[in-house]
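Exercise 3.2. Students should predict the tertiary structure of the chain below and write it as structure tokens, then compare their answer with the key that follows.

Predict this chain's 3D structure.
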Amino acid sequence: MRLRIKNYDNIHVLLAVKFLTGLYFYLPYMTLYFLDRGLNFIQINSVWGIVVLTMFLTEVPTGLFADRFGRRKAIQAAVFLQFVGEFLFLFITEYWVLVIDAVIAGLGFAFGSGALEALVYDQLSAEGRQDQMKKVMGRLNGATYRGFLSPSG
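Answer key:
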């Protein structure tokens, strides 16, 4: 039996997703972790460049996917890719695996970037509450920041 979430639950589900996908406990220690795994600073610091380049190259195709197959499926793909990336992160010992992980992360971010806002707007529009878009997006961004916990901050 497939669980069906009604449309009015989208925003609450997205709040939980944004919180859970923002849980990055390891970021303050990531550089030390990779140095311990034998990577150098150039390899470690190239990760965000690869993530951003992947996002740039896949933003339009992932948007087309969201338009064709649904925004909810695009968000599900984003969460799945993030999970795969985090799982792969545990096994990184070589630079080429880090590159693959960065591509997966960039693709996941691209899937989620526009689909999230469009899904929220569609729901608010259906309910006649378009004027609450900024408030809801603020709550979603706040959920991400609450999930972004750091022992140093």
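Discussion points: The chain has one domain: 7-147. DSSP finds six helices and no strands in the chain.
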